[in-house]
Write the structure tokens for this entry.
Amino acid sequence: MNSIVILCNGAFPTEPYPLFLLDSAEGVVCCDGALGKYLQRHPDSTPLAVVGDMDSLSGELRGRFSAIIYHEAEQEYNDMTKAMRWVLRFHPEVTDITILGATGLREDHTVGNLGLLMEYPRLLDLGDRRVQMVSDFGTAFCVTDSCDLHLGEGRRISLFSADNSLRVSSTGLEWPLDDVIWDAWWKATLNRTVSPIVTLNFNHPSSLLVMVD
């Protein structure tokens, strides 16, 4: 199984692109109460697993899907991270992981989930897997070293890092990153691509969150 979607219990997507990713995934893992939202769109389907602390899953659904429920009561990490760990454990062959429903409804969950996405290369053994978070408003992913991003020209882009020792030189952005000191999250937001390929050159490996729409 190459393509797996993790469906979180935030704002359910309504735009064509994230819905296409959900509908075309080879497998879906639901975080806790997201199972109910998934069943509204796919009433006759069964996800690969339902993972989380089960604090937002109804008793009726717990009984109906008990065979695929993986209850993790620990509270150090959230349900999205528990689902990521489940996918990597039970489907190590996966090459593409798309996270949907991770934003919206609560701003603290949105900020926390984006922060976790930036930390996953450090926290989890991702290897060469492609991990992205997609919503109705854009796509977020993490890069960890110098790279070329084939994004297309004229796209809005913001970049975030928690590493104030990181320095990034860039081409293909309206406002180059060369002088950015990454000591606040707003420092490299609201940029724009001016060529089809954006090149980022890191002074050392680190985690950089990229958000495009």
About this structure: The chain has a mean pLDDT of 95. The radius of gyration is 18 Å. The helical segments are 16-24, 34-41, 59-64, 79-90, 107-123. Residues 157 and 191 are 5 Å apart (CA to CA).
